[in-house]
Protein backbone atom coordinates (compact mmCIF):
# COMPACT_ATOMS: atom_id res chain seq x y z
CA UNK A 1 0.00 0.00 0.00
CA UNK A 2 1.22 3.46 -0.88
CA UNK A 3 -0.27 5.11 2.19
CA UNK A 4 1.34 4.60 5.58
CA UNK A 5 -0.62 2.27 7.82
CA UNK A 6 -0.38 3.19 11.48
CA UNK A 7 -2.98 0.85 12.91
CA UNK A 8 -4.83 -2.18 11.53
CA UNK A 9 -7.69 -4.29 12.93
CA UNK A 10 -7.09 -7.98 12.32
CA UNK A 11 -9.76 -10.67 12.30
CA UNK A 12 -7.92 -12.91 14.75
CA UNK A 13 -8.81 -16.48 15.65
CA UNK A 14 -5.70 -17.22 17.67
CA UNK A 15 -4.90 -20.06 15.30
CA UNK A 16 -1.82 -20.63 13.18
CA UNK A 17 -2.62 -18.41 10.19
CA UNK A 18 -3.84 -15.33 12.02
CA UNK A 19 -1.13 -15.54 14.68
CA UNK A 20 1.44 -15.48 11.92
CA UNK A 21 -0.42 -12.61 10.24
CA UNK A 22 -0.39 -10.55 13.44
CA UNK A 23 3.39 -10.90 13.70
CA UNK A 24 3.85 -10.34 9.96
CA UNK A 25 1.78 -7.12 10.03
CA UNK A 26 3.94 -5.77 12.83
CA UNK A 27 7.09 -6.50 10.87
CA UNK A 28 6.00 -5.74 7.30
CA UNK A 29 3.98 -2.61 7.99
CA UNK A 30 5.65 -1.45 11.20
CA UNK A 31 2.16 -0.73 12.51
CA UNK A 32 0.09 -1.25 15.60
CA UNK A 33 -2.22 -4.27 15.43
CA UNK A 34 -5.65 -4.48 17.04
CA UNK A 35 -7.08 -8.00 17.24
CA UNK A 36 -10.74 -8.89 16.97
CA UNK A 37 -11.84 -12.38 17.98
CA UNK A 38 -15.49 -13.33 17.56
CA UNK A 39 -17.19 -16.17 19.39
CA UNK A 40 -19.79 -17.25 16.84
CA UNK A 41 -20.16 -20.75 18.24
CA UNK A 42 -16.99 -22.41 16.98
CA UNK A 43 -17.05 -24.61 20.08
CA UNK A 44 -13.59 -23.62 21.32
CA UNK A 45 -12.51 -21.19 23.99
CA UNK A 46 -11.78 -17.76 22.55
CA UNK A 47 -10.08 -16.32 25.65
CA UNK A 48 -6.74 -18.04 24.88
CA UNK A 49 -6.55 -15.69 21.90
CA UNK A 50 -6.07 -12.87 24.38
CA UNK A 51 -2.90 -14.39 25.84
CA UNK A 52 -1.48 -15.08 22.39
CA UNK A 53 -2.16 -11.52 21.28
CA UNK A 54 -0.66 -10.11 24.45
CA UNK A 55 2.45 -12.25 23.94
CA UNK A 56 2.98 -10.45 20.62
CA UNK A 57 2.75 -7.05 22.30
CA UNK A 58 -0.77 -6.27 21.14
CA UNK A 59 -2.49 -3.81 23.45
CA UNK A 60 -5.99 -3.39 22.01
CA UNK A 61 -7.74 -6.77 22.05
CA UNK A 62 -11.41 -7.27 21.25
CA UNK A 63 -13.04 -10.58 22.18
CA UNK A 64 -16.81 -10.67 21.72
CA UNK A 65 -19.60 -13.20 22.13
CA UNK A 66 -21.64 -12.76 18.94
CA UNK A 67 -23.47 -16.08 18.99
CA UNK A 68 -26.95 -14.66 19.43
CA UNK A 69 -26.45 -11.87 16.92
CA UNK A 70 -25.03 -14.36 14.41
CA UNK A 71 -27.91 -16.79 14.81
CA UNK A 72 -30.68 -14.19 15.02
CA UNK A 73 -29.63 -11.66 12.40
CA UNK A 74 -27.77 -13.80 9.87
CA UNK A 75 -28.50 -17.54 10.08
CA UNK A 76 -32.23 -17.25 10.80
CA UNK A 77 -33.01 -14.81 7.96
CA UNK A 78 -31.06 -17.07 5.60
CA UNK A 79 -33.01 -20.14 6.66
CA UNK A 80 -36.31 -18.37 6.03
CA UNK A 81 -35.21 -18.59 2.40
CA UNK A 82 -34.25 -22.30 2.62
CA UNK A 83 -30.93 -21.17 1.14
CA UNK A 84 -28.62 -23.86 -0.17
CA UNK A 85 -25.82 -23.34 -2.70
CA UNK A 86 -25.54 -25.71 -5.66
CA UNK A 87 -28.01 -28.08 -4.05
CA UNK A 88 -25.66 -29.13 -1.25
CA UNK A 89 -23.86 -26.39 0.68
CA UNK A 90 -25.71 -24.80 3.61
CA UNK A 91 -23.48 -21.70 3.50
CA UNK A 92 -21.96 -22.10 6.96
CA UNK A 93 -18.79 -20.14 6.27
CA UNK A 94 -20.40 -17.69 3.86
CA UNK A 95 -23.01 -16.40 6.30
CA UNK A 96 -20.46 -15.73 9.07
CA UNK A 97 -18.35 -13.34 7.01
CA UNK A 98 -20.76 -10.37 6.88
CA UNK A 99 -20.95 -10.16 10.67
CA UNK A 100 -17.17 -10.35 11.08
CA UNK A 101 -16.68 -7.73 8.36
CA UNK A 102 -19.23 -5.47 10.05
CA UNK A 103 -17.42 -5.61 13.39
CA UNK A 104 -14.01 -5.11 11.77
CA UNK A 105 -15.24 -1.89 10.20
CA UNK A 106 -16.88 -0.74 13.43
CA UNK A 107 -13.79 -1.49 15.52
CA UNK A 108 -11.59 0.30 13.01
CA UNK A 109 -13.76 3.37 13.49
CA UNK A 110 -13.74 3.00 17.29
CA UNK A 111 -9.95 2.66 17.51
CA UNK A 112 -8.96 5.07 14.76
CA UNK A 113 -7.39 2.32 12.67
CA UNK A 114 -6.36 2.96 9.08
CA UNK A 115 -7.13 -0.52 7.79
CA UNK A 116 -8.55 -3.96 8.46
CA UNK A 117 -6.88 -7.30 7.73
CA UNK A 118 -8.01 -10.88 7.31
CA UNK A 119 -6.46 -14.31 6.90
CA UNK A 120 -8.29 -15.42 3.76
CA UNK A 121 -6.11 -16.75 0.97
CA UNK A 122 -5.88 -15.29 -2.51
CA UNK A 123 -7.46 -18.44 -3.89
CA UNK A 124 -10.55 -18.50 -1.71
CA UNK A 125 -14.00 -17.00 -1.50
CA UNK A 126 -13.53 -15.50 1.95
CA UNK A 127 -11.28 -12.69 0.74
CA UNK A 128 -14.13 -11.60 -1.53
CA UNK A 129 -16.75 -11.91 1.21
CA UNK A 130 -14.77 -10.00 3.83
CA UNK A 131 -13.87 -7.20 1.49
CA UNK A 132 -17.16 -6.75 -0.40
CA UNK A 133 -19.06 -6.61 2.87
CA UNK A 134 -16.54 -4.22 4.38
CA UNK A 135 -16.65 -1.87 1.39
CA UNK A 136 -20.44 -1.93 1.46
CA UNK A 137 -20.28 -0.52 5.00
CA UNK A 138 -17.29 1.80 4.60
CA UNK A 139 -16.26 2.61 1.02
CA UNK A 140 -13.02 4.24 2.21
CA UNK A 141 -11.74 1.37 4.36
CA UNK A 142 -8.29 0.00 3.47
CA UNK A 143 -7.86 -3.77 3.44
CA UNK A 144 -4.67 -5.76 3.93
CA UNK A 145 -4.75 -9.35 2.71
CA UNK A 146 -1.36 -10.90 3.60
CA UNK A 147 -1.94 -14.01 1.52
CA UNK A 148 -1.91 -11.79 -1.56
CA UNK A 149 1.36 -10.15 -0.54
CA UNK A 150 3.71 -12.51 1.26
CA UNK A 151 5.65 -15.57 0.09
CA UNK A 152 4.39 -17.92 2.83
CA UNK A 153 2.34 -19.81 0.27
CA UNK A 154 2.15 -23.26 1.86
CA UNK A 155 1.27 -24.80 5.20
CA UNK A 156 4.87 -25.95 5.60
CA UNK A 157 6.24 -22.41 5.13
CA UNK A 158 3.68 -21.09 7.61
CA UNK A 159 4.80 -23.62 10.20
CA UNK A 160 8.43 -22.80 9.65
CA UNK A 161 7.65 -19.10 10.15
CA UNK A 162 5.71 -19.94 13.30
CA UNK A 163 8.58 -21.97 14.72
CA UNK A 164 11.06 -19.20 13.93
CA UNK A 165 8.92 -16.62 15.74
CA UNK A 166 7.89 -18.85 18.64
CA UNK A 167 4.21 -19.09 17.64
CA UNK A 168 2.55 -22.27 19.01
CA UNK A 169 1.18 -24.75 16.46
CA UNK A 170 -1.94 -26.70 17.44
CA UNK A 171 -3.16 -29.97 15.97
CA UNK A 172 0.16 -30.77 14.35
CA UNK A 173 0.37 -34.47 13.49
CA UNK A 174 3.99 -35.35 12.91
CA UNK A 175 5.14 -33.62 9.72
CA UNK A 176 1.67 -33.54 8.22
CA UNK A 177 -0.11 -30.20 7.90
CA UNK A 178 -3.46 -29.90 9.70
CA UNK A 179 -6.68 -29.42 7.78
CA UNK A 180 -7.82 -25.90 7.09
CA UNK A 181 -10.95 -25.64 9.24
CA UNK A 182 -13.62 -23.08 9.93
CA UNK A 183 -16.33 -23.46 12.57
CA UNK A 184 -19.31 -21.57 13.89
CA UNK A 185 -22.81 -22.31 15.18
CA UNK A 186 -23.92 -23.44 11.74
CA UNK A 187 -21.10 -25.74 10.69
CA UNK A 188 -17.50 -26.87 10.70
CA UNK A 189 -15.64 -27.17 7.41
CA UNK A 190 -12.54 -29.08 6.34
CA UNK A 191 -10.26 -28.40 3.37
CA UNK A 192 -6.75 -29.31 2.33
CA UNK A 193 -4.66 -32.38 3.05
CA UNK A 194 -5.92 -35.58 1.47
CA UNK A 195 -9.18 -33.80 0.59
CA UNK A 196 -7.39 -32.02 -2.24
CA UNK A 197 -7.85 -35.21 -4.26
CA UNK A 198 -11.64 -35.50 -4.74
CA UNK A 199 -11.32 -39.28 -5.08
CA UNK A 200 -10.06 -39.71 -1.51
CA UNK A 201 -12.62 -40.62 1.13
CA UNK A 202 -12.33 -38.46 4.26
CA UNK A 203 -10.69 -40.06 7.26
CA UNK A 204 -13.18 -40.94 9.97
CA UNK A 205 -10.88 -39.27 12.49
CA UNK A 206 -11.34 -35.95 10.69
CA UNK A 207 -14.97 -35.47 11.75
CA UNK A 208 -15.43 -33.65 15.05
CA UNK A 209 -19.11 -32.93 15.59
CA UNK A 210 -20.86 -36.03 14.30
CA UNK A 211 -20.63 -39.75 14.75
CA UNK A 212 -20.76 -41.83 11.60
CA UNK A 213 -24.26 -43.02 10.70
CA UNK A 214 -23.03 -46.59 11.21
CA UNK A 215 -22.17 -45.82 14.82
CA UNK A 216 -25.25 -43.73 15.56
CA UNK A 217 -27.79 -45.11 18.06
CA UNK A 218 -30.01 -47.95 16.89
CA UNK A 219 -33.07 -46.16 18.25
CA UNK A 220 -34.32 -42.92 16.67
CA UNK A 221 -34.97 -39.70 18.56
CA UNK A 222 -38.08 -37.59 17.97
CA UNK A 223 -38.09 -33.80 18.20
CA UNK A 224 -40.97 -31.34 18.07
CA UNK A 225 -39.81 -28.06 16.58
CA UNK A 226 -41.92 -24.95 17.16
CA UNK A 227 -41.99 -22.18 14.54
CA UNK A 228 -43.18 -18.60 14.68
CA UNK A 229 -43.23 -16.56 11.48
CA UNK A 230 -40.62 -18.78 9.88
CA UNK A 231 -38.21 -18.88 12.82
CA UNK A 232 -37.51 -21.90 15.01
CA UNK A 233 -38.28 -20.76 18.57
CA UNK A 234 -38.48 -23.95 20.65
CA UNK A 235 -37.71 -27.65 20.92
CA UNK A 236 -39.94 -30.20 22.65
CA UNK A 237 -42.00 -27.51 24.34
CA UNK A 238 -39.04 -25.51 25.64
CA UNK A 239 -38.67 -22.01 24.28
CA UNK A 240 -35.11 -21.14 23.24
CA UNK A 241 -33.11 -18.30 21.75
CA UNK A 242 -31.78 -18.79 18.20
CA UNK A 243 -28.29 -19.67 19.45
CA UNK A 244 -29.68 -22.11 22.01
CA UNK A 245 -31.76 -23.78 19.30
CA UNK A 246 -28.71 -24.28 17.13
CA UNK A 247 -26.48 -25.49 19.95
CA UNK A 248 -29.13 -28.04 20.97
CA UNK A 249 -29.70 -29.30 17.44
CA UNK A 250 -25.95 -29.53 16.80
CA UNK A 251 -25.55 -31.71 19.86
CA UNK A 252 -28.52 -34.00 19.22
CA UNK A 253 -27.99 -34.11 15.47
CA UNK A 254 -24.31 -34.89 15.91
CA UNK A 255 -25.14 -37.80 18.20
CA UNK A 256 -27.29 -39.28 15.41
CA UNK A 257 -24.87 -38.75 12.53
CA UNK A 258 -26.79 -35.87 10.99
CA UNK A 259 -25.27 -33.31 8.66
CA UNK A 260 -22.12 -34.69 7.00
CA UNK A 261 -21.52 -33.60 3.41
CA UNK A 262 -18.63 -34.02 0.98
CA UNK A 263 -18.83 -31.41 -1.79
CA UNK A 264 -16.99 -30.14 -4.83
CA UNK A 265 -18.25 -26.58 -5.24
CA UNK A 266 -17.71 -23.79 -7.73
CA UNK A 267 -15.94 -20.93 -6.03
CA UNK A 268 -16.73 -17.34 -6.96
CA UNK A 269 -13.08 -16.78 -7.90
CA UNK A 270 -13.40 -19.36 -10.68
CA UNK A 271 -11.99 -22.67 -9.47
CA UNK A 272 -13.57 -25.84 -8.19
CA UNK A 273 -12.89 -26.73 -4.57
CA UNK A 274 -13.50 -29.86 -2.54
CA UNK A 275 -14.60 -29.46 1.05
CA UNK A 276 -16.27 -31.51 3.76
CA UNK A 277 -18.82 -30.06 6.14
CA UNK A 278 -20.67 -30.97 9.30
CA UNK A 279 -23.94 -29.05 9.63
CA UNK A 280 -26.20 -30.92 12.07
CA UNK A 281 -28.45 -28.05 13.15
CA UNK A 282 -28.71 -26.59 9.66
CA UNK A 283 -29.64 -29.92 8.12
CA UNK A 284 -32.49 -30.36 10.60
CA UNK A 285 -33.60 -26.75 10.29
CA UNK A 286 -33.79 -26.83 6.50
CA UNK A 287 -35.88 -30.00 6.47
CA UNK A 288 -38.22 -28.80 9.20
CA UNK A 289 -38.68 -25.32 7.78
CA UNK A 290 -39.69 -26.69 4.41
CA UNK A 291 -42.14 -28.98 6.21
CA UNK A 292 -43.90 -26.15 8.06
CA UNK A 293 -43.98 -24.12 4.85
CA UNK A 294 -45.57 -27.03 3.02
CA UNK A 295 -48.82 -26.54 4.94
CA UNK A 296 -48.75 -22.77 5.48
CA UNK A 297 -47.52 -21.27 2.19
CA UNK A 298 -49.72 -20.77 -0.84
CA UNK A 299 -48.58 -22.82 -3.84
CA UNK A 300 -47.52 -19.91 -6.04
CA UNK A 301 -45.81 -18.08 -3.17
CA UNK A 302 -43.89 -21.27 -2.35
CA UNK A 303 -42.91 -21.86 -5.97
CA UNK A 304 -41.83 -18.24 -6.48
CA UNK A 305 -39.79 -18.44 -3.29
CA UNK A 306 -38.06 -21.58 -4.56
CA UNK A 307 -37.25 -19.80 -7.81
CA UNK A 308 -35.67 -16.90 -5.93
CA UNK A 309 -33.68 -19.10 -3.56
CA UNK A 310 -30.74 -20.01 -5.85
CA UNK A 311 -30.15 -16.33 -6.59
CA UNK A 312 -30.38 -15.48 -2.89
CA UNK A 313 -27.99 -18.30 -1.95
CA UNK A 314 -25.49 -17.24 -4.59
CA UNK A 315 -25.53 -13.67 -3.30
CA UNK A 316 -24.58 -14.91 0.18
CA UNK A 317 -21.98 -17.32 -1.17
CA UNK A 318 -20.36 -14.56 -3.24
CA UNK A 319 -20.28 -11.97 -0.45
CA UNK A 320 -23.21 -9.66 -1.22
CA UNK A 321 -25.05 -9.80 2.12
CA UNK A 322 -25.18 -6.01 2.45
CA UNK A 323 -26.01 -5.46 -1.22
CA UNK A 324 -29.41 -3.94 -2.11
CA UNK A 325 -30.48 -6.96 -4.16
CA UNK A 326 -30.04 -9.29 -1.17
CA UNK A 327 -31.99 -6.90 1.04
CA UNK A 328 -34.72 -6.69 -1.59
CA UNK A 329 -34.99 -10.47 -1.77
CA UNK A 330 -34.96 -10.68 2.04
CA UNK A 331 -37.94 -8.34 2.24
CA UNK A 332 -39.87 -10.53 -0.19
CA UNK A 333 -38.90 -13.71 1.65
CA UNK A 334 -39.82 -12.28 5.05
CA UNK A 335 -43.22 -11.26 3.70
CA UNK A 336 -43.96 -14.91 2.91
CA UNK A 337 -43.27 -15.94 6.51
CA UNK A 338 -46.18 -14.13 8.21
CA UNK A 339 -48.17 -17.35 8.65
CA UNK A 340 -45.30 -19.86 8.79
CA UNK A 341 -46.15 -20.78 12.38
CA UNK A 342 -46.72 -24.20 13.88
CA UNK A 343 -44.94 -27.39 14.90
CA UNK A 344 -42.94 -29.95 12.96
CA UNK A 345 -42.14 -33.41 14.33
CA UNK A 346 -38.95 -34.99 13.00
CA UNK A 347 -37.30 -38.35 13.52
CA UNK A 348 -33.51 -38.48 13.57
CA UNK A 349 -32.08 -41.86 12.70
CA UNK A 350 -28.60 -42.83 11.54
CA UNK A 351 -27.83 -39.73 9.49
CA UNK A 352 -31.40 -39.15 8.32
CA UNK A 353 -33.83 -36.36 9.16
CA UNK A 354 -37.34 -37.67 8.56
CA UNK A 355 -40.38 -35.44 8.84
CA UNK A 356 -43.19 -37.41 10.49
CA UNK A 357 -45.68 -34.68 11.37
CA UNK A 358 -46.58 -31.05 10.89
CA UNK A 359 -49.41 -28.85 12.17
CA UNK A 360 -50.28 -25.16 12.18
CA UNK A 361 -53.16 -22.90 13.24
CA UNK A 362 -52.72 -21.32 9.79
CA UNK A 363 -52.60 -24.56 7.82
CA UNK A 364 -53.90 -24.47 4.24
CA UNK A 365 -54.24 -28.23 4.23
CA UNK A 366 -57.97 -29.05 4.07
CA UNK A 367 -58.72 -32.64 5.01
CA UNK A 368 -62.28 -32.36 3.71
CA UNK A 369 -60.99 -31.56 0.23
CA UNK A 370 -57.91 -33.81 0.21
CA UNK A 371 -59.57 -36.96 1.60
CA UNK A 372 -59.93 -40.15 -0.44
CA UNK A 373 -63.11 -40.88 1.48
CA UNK A 374 -66.50 -39.21 1.07
CA UNK A 375 -65.84 -35.46 1.07
CA UNK A 376 -69.54 -34.61 1.51
CA UNK A 377 -69.50 -32.31 -1.51
CA UNK A 378 -66.49 -30.23 -0.50
CA UNK A 379 -64.93 -30.86 -3.91
CA UNK A 380 -66.85 -31.47 -7.13
CA UNK A 381 -64.74 -33.87 -9.16
CA UNK A 382 -66.65 -32.98 -12.32
CA UNK A 383 -64.93 -29.56 -12.25
CA UNK A 384 -61.65 -31.25 -13.11
CA UNK A 385 -62.87 -32.09 -16.61
CA UNK A 386 -63.17 -28.47 -17.73
CA UNK A 387 -59.88 -27.61 -16.02
CA UNK A 388 -58.10 -30.32 -17.97
CA UNK A 389 -59.69 -29.39 -21.29
CA UNK A 390 -58.71 -25.74 -20.96
CA UNK A 391 -55.12 -26.63 -20.12
CA UNK A 392 -55.03 -29.16 -22.96
CA UNK A 393 -56.27 -26.69 -25.58
CA UNK A 394 -52.86 -25.37 -26.65
CA UNK A 395 -51.33 -28.86 -26.51
CA UNK A 396 -54.03 -30.20 -28.84
CA UNK A 397 -53.47 -27.35 -31.26
CA UNK A 398 -49.72 -28.02 -31.27
CA UNK A 399 -50.30 -31.71 -31.84
CA UNK A 400 -52.56 -30.99 -34.84
CA UNK A 401 -49.88 -28.79 -36.43
CA UNK A 402 -47.24 -31.50 -36.06
CA UNK A 403 -49.28 -34.20 -37.84
Automatic annotation (TrEMBL):
Domain spans labelled Arginosuccinate synthase C-terminal:
179-396
Presence of keyword Cell inner membrane: no
Which residues take part in binding L-citrulline?
89, 94, 125, 129, 180, 189, 265, 277
Q: Name one Pfam family in it.
A: Arginosuc_synth
The Arginosuccinate synthase-like N-terminal domain, residue ranges: 7-168
Could you say which residues bind L-aspartate here? 121, 125-126
Q: Which GO terms describe its molecular function?
A: argininosuccinate synthase activity; ATP binding
GO cellular component terms given for this protein: cytoplasm
- Which family is this protein grouped under? Belongs to the argininosuccinate synthase family. Type 1 subfamily.
Q: What is this protein called?
A: Argininosuccinate synthase
- Please state the gene responsible for encoding this protein: argG
Amino acid sequence: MKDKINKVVLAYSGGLDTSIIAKWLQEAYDCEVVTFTADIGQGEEVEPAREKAQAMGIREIYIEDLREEFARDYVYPMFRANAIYEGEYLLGTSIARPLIAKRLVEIAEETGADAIAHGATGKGNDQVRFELNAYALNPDIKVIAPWREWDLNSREKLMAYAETHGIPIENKKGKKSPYSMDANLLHISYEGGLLEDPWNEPEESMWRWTVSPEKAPNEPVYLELAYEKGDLVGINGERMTPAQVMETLNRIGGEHGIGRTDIVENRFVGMKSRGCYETPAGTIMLKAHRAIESITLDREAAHTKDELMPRYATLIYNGFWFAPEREMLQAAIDQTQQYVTGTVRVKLYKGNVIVVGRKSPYSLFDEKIATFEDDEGAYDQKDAEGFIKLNALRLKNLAKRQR
